[in-house]
Amino acid sequence: MLMTPDCDRQKIAVFIVLVAAVAAALLMGYDSGSWITGALGYVAWSLMPYAFLLGLHFATCTNRLLAFSARETTWSFIGISIAGPLLYIDIRYLRPDAQGAIAMLMVPVMQCAGILFISTISLLWYRFQNNKANRLLSLLNKSAVAAFTIYLLISALQYSDAKTIDTAKEIDFFITKHCQTHGMLPTSSQLHARFPGLTTDVGWYFFTDDASWLKMQYPVRWSNSRALGKPQASEFTATTYSYIIEYRCVDTR
Question: In whole angstroms, what is the distance from residue 111 CA to residue 81 CA?
């Protein structure tokens, strides 16, 4: 396993980490638009968490660090490694966004944060358990590592939704202001002219009678307390959730 003193049994885990590292580097380099620039900056940035993982692996095997054995830690590290390329593919190809480049650059930071947290918790728990074996503590160890890994992945999904939520707030302001100024809601053609990139292809829907009623649906990857509207399971796209906001405007002038 990745964090055990028996290096022979870590080969599969290391192989998966290396494959994920190559995939992450290729995706980041391709997305940078220039392999020269990408190799000097973006690719090196994407490889940072994988270098961190391999450094921990070899430091453990050579006994420069206190070896601690935790299968849950190994699987968490494998999950973090694979999550990198999967998030790149999702951000770049499945759900492209105007702020996708920033989101991609944040993925290695979140991976490193997860690796550091899990390593620290695993080492502390190992030392504590080594002094006094306790099944309950072992269960808590597994639960803590699994819970943080899930939290990290959800946080990454919520972060990738930040730009979409900000856009929804901008549209909400535009619709509300239009109603106050003109006594009617903007038509679907006006909305598409003002926000041309928000089409059904990327999960945005405007249902309206072009006068007094409008319902907007926008896609998110995960529920978020910052989002406007009512959450529901997505009906039209492959996203996990969507949010709906309904507007009614009556001319009272």
Answer: 8
Ranked by mean pLDDT, the top range of 1-10, 54-63, 164-173 is 164-173
Residue 62 burial (CB count, 10 A): 11
Nearest-angstrom CA–CA distance, 86 and 102: 16
Q: Distance between CA atoms of 112 and 20, rounded to whole angstroms?
A: 14
74-97 exposure pattern, b = at least 16 Cβ within 10 A, e = fewer: bbbbbbbbbbbbbbbebbbeebeb
**pLDDT beyond 50 at 137:** yes
User: How many Cα atoms occupy the beta-carbon half-sphere of 12 within 13 Å?
Assistant: 5
Could you give the CA distance from residue 35 to residue 196 in angstroms, rounded to a whole number? 31
Greatest mean pLDDT range, 31-45, 47-61, 159-173:
159-173
Half-sphere exposure of 75 (CA within 13 A, CB side): 10
Provide the residue count of the chain.
253
CB 80 within 8 A of CB 149: yes
Q: Say what the pLDDT of residue 4 is.
A: 43
CA 191/CA 148 separation, integer angstroms: 40
- Asked if 160 and 90 count as a contact pair (C-beta separation under 8 A), the reply is yes
Q: Is 215 helix (H, G, I), strand (E, B) or coil?
A: strand
pLDDT at 163: 84
Query: Is the Cβ–Cβ distance between 31 and 44 less than 8 Å?
Result: no
Q: Which tens digits make up the pLDDT trace of 205-247?
A: 888 887 788 888 888 877 787 888 888 765 554 455 788 889 9
